[in-house]
Specification:
Layout lengths: L1 H28 L1 H4 L4 H5 L1 H29 L3 H32 L7 H4 L3 H6 L3 H26 L10 H20 L18 H7 L6
Length: 218
């Protein structure tokens, strides 16, 4: 049990750091947009983003928690590999989303939304809408984010020592407790109103507020 909880905590920390890293990439990519904004307000993006980040992590961890419960009952190496693969797919998708936002923000002035699916009808329009240098720069950023995320998660998180199979009732208690926390966290607490984008808004500058909004949650 201790090893599983430690691994979940590592996953939680990993995703918070990964979210912060992608925000830093966005700020650096659009540094000219932030040049007239107070530095301390830019730093304030990160604490104001935590509430929505935690909600996002709770969504992300739902499937891994279920798989960890199975691993807790039947500690087989292939289950650990499956959990790593699931996390890797999420890293891939999140890196794709944040990289796409780098490409569209200058034109849309908003987060990535369902409008992007209209471009899938004519994929050549996506390529033709940006210069070749910009396209390959975004591709490089995507690869760096993906490789960094996969590398850290593999070396720091997914190193499990052999454990003894747990008793069934312990696994049930584990998944009930875990999913209760994830449900409350994803909703943003036990209040009447669930969490929304506005929980991350704190600035008169739209780009600051949008940077604080978690791209995956959005």
């Amino acid at each position: 049990m201790k090893q599983i909880i430690t691994l979940l905590l590592k996953l939680l920390i990993f995703w918070f750091l990964f979210f912060a890293f992608t925000r830093c990439v966005f700020i650096l990519y659009y540094y000219t947009y932030f040049s007239d904004i107070d530095f301390f307000q830019i730093l304030s993006i990160f604490p104001h983003a935590l509430h929505l980040d935690f909600s996002t992590v709770c969504y992300i961890l739902a499937l891994p928690v279920l798989l960890f419960t199975i691993y807790y009952l039947h500690p087989k190496r292939w289950i650990n590999t499956l959990i790593f693969s699931v996390n890797g797919i999420i890293i891939f998708l999140y890196s794709l989303i944040t990289t796409a936002e780098l490409g569209i923000y200058a034109e849309w002035k908003s987060k990535l939304s369902s409008k992007v699916f209209r471009y899938f009808e004519s994929p050549d329009e996506i390529y033709n809408s940006v210069s070749t240098s910009t396209f390959f720069l975004l591709l490089l950023i995507f690869i760096i984010q993906l490789m960094l995320g996969l590398g850290i998660s593999k070396k720091w998180i997914f190193k499990l020592n052999p454990i003894k199979p747990a008793k069934f009732y312990n696994a049930i208690l584990f998944i009930l407790f875990s999913f209760s926390i994830l449900l409350i966290g994803a909703r943003g607490g036990v209040g009447q109103i669930p969490i929304t984008q506005s929980n991350s808004y704190f600035s008169k500058h739209n780009i600051v507020n949008l940077t604080a909004v978690n791209s995956g949650w959005n």
